[in-house]
Amino acid sequence: MIDICHVKETSPSHVPLCNRYQALAVEGHSSEDMDDSQATPEVAPRPKRPMPWVMTSPTKKKRRVIVVGDSLLKGTEGLICRADPPLREVCCLPRARVKDIARKLPSLVQPSDYYPLLLLHVGGNEAETRTTKAIKRDFRLLGQSLKDSGAQVIFSSLLPVEGSNGGRNRRTQSINAWLRGWCQCHNFGFFDNGTAYTAPGLMNPDGIHLSQRGKRIFAQELAGLIDRALS
């Protein structure tokens, strides 16, 4: 399930002039171009004409895409960046925690970036050893730093692990449920990876890291998400 909050760029369309702006003269000269001898004391009413229209610019600026997160992103660069290599970047931070992403972001987003798209996948490394309360607190702090970034932000849900690690999976489910609601409240996007990656063959024998096949599917899912967010 995908919940994406995004703003589409304006496509070429006809837009009526708002009446809080002064309408431009459609034909002839404006009154400022005439001297006093040309002015007449009264002007006969003219027939009503249709409201003037303007055409919006067809120019569409390209947006930068930054995917940042933990070691699960390693090996996803090719599929994610293939569509537009100069404007797409994957930043993989092995063993990264949520607070590490908050520290890294200022060096990734440039002031000149036009409405960049930030896709964040982090938190899984912490579900084993930290409480959900602590992880949620770090997500809140990260969200505060993103509020004024001028970026479109999407959080990718934590992946469950394969096998009998029930405690970690319960924490993962709890964090994901909270993360979805928190993202909706703060106008961030949320991408639900679901439990598909616990299927046979998608995890390495350790039950935590993705296999090559799982990595390829994961990269394809993120690339598709980016394409939809930019459309």
Automatic annotation (TrEMBL):
InterPro entries per record: Ester_Hydrolysis_Enzymes
Superkingdom, natural source: Eukaryota
Organism lineage string: Eukaryota, Metazoa, Chordata, Craniata, Vertebrata
Region (Disordered): 29-55
Protein's recorded name: SGNH hydrolase-type esterase domain-containing protein
